[in-house]
Design brief:
10 helices, 2 domains, Arc Repressor Mutant, subunit A, Tetracycline Repressor, domain 2, elongated
C-alpha cells in the first residue's frame, strides 16, 4: 500500500480530474476540490501550488503508466530465452493491449486534445501536446526494438507507427464517446490492436 501522503496526493488528482471534466478547467477551483475531499486548502498546497500543477501531475502519471508497461528491462528479460514466433507475437499483443487500455481508461486526455473541456488555454494545450509526444516516443522506441529484432517490417517508420496507434485510439474514444458506446469492451480493444499489428508484423 502506498504511503498516506501518496494516497492523499492521488485523491486530490482524481477528484480534480473529475471536476475538470464535469465543470471545466477554469471553473474548477482548489477550494472545490478541498470541499469534495473535506480537507483544508493547506493540504492541497502541500503537493501543488495551483490547479495547473495538478493537471500536469495527472498527465505525467498517464505517461508514466505507459512507460512502465513498455519497460525495456521486461522486454529484454523476455528475450533472454529462445521464444517461438507465437510467444513473441502474444507478448507484443499484451503490451500493446495494455498501452491502448491505459489511453482508453483516461478520457480526460482525449477531451483535452479535442478541447472538450471548457477553459482550456494555449498554455494547457502545450502541456497536453508535450505529454502526447512523450507517450508517442515510448511507443516509437518499442516499435524500433521490434524492427531491429526483425519481428516488425524493416520499412516501418517507428514515429509514424506510434502516431497512428495513439491517434487512432484517441479518435475512436472521441467518436465512440459521442455515441455513448463503451470503447473499453474487449472486442473494440482487440480490433484496435489487430488493425495496428497486422500491418506491422514481418511476414514469415
Amino acid at each position: 500500500m502506498p504511503p498516506k501522503g501518496e494516497r492523499r496526493k492521488q485523491q486530490i488528482i482524481d477528484t480534480a480530474k473529475n471536476m475538470f471534466i464535469e465543470r471545466g478547467f477554469q471553473s474548477t477551483h482548489i477550494g472545490q476540490v478541498c470541499d469534495e475531499l473535506n480537507i483544508a486548502r493547506g493540504t492541497v498546497y502541500q503537493y501543488f501550488n495551483n490547479k495547473k500543477e495538478i493537471l500536469i501531475a495527472l498527465l505525467d502519471s498517464i505517461a508514466e503508466k505507459i512507460k512502465d508497461t513498455l519497460d525495456q528491462d521486461d522486454l529484454n528479460d523476455f528475450l533472454k530465452n529462445n521464444k517461438s514466433s507465437g510467444d513473441v507475437e502474444n507478448f507484443i499483443r499484451s503490451r500493446i493491449v495494455s498501452t491502448a487500455s491505459i489511453i482508453l481508461n483516461e478520457p480526460i486526455v482525449i477531451k483535452l486534445i479535442f478541447k472538450d473541456i471548457q477553459g482550456i488555454d494555449d498554455d494547457i494545450t502545450a502541456i497536453v501536446d508535450n505529454i502526447v509526444q512523450k507517450i508517442k516516443s515510448f511507443i516509437a522506441e518499442e516499435v524500433k526494438k521490434w524492427i531491429e529484432l526483425k519481428v516488425f517490417k524493416s520499412n516501418l517508420n517507428a514515429d509514424i507507427t506510434a502516431s497512428m496507434l495513439v491517434g487512432g485510439v484517441m479518435l475512436l474514444i472521441y467518436e465512440y464517446g459521442k455515441e455513448n458506446k463503451n470503447i473499453l469492451e474487449k472486442e473494440y480493444v482487440d480490433a484496435i490492436v489487430e488493425t495496428y499489428l497486422n500491418g506491422s508484423f514481418k511476414k514469415s
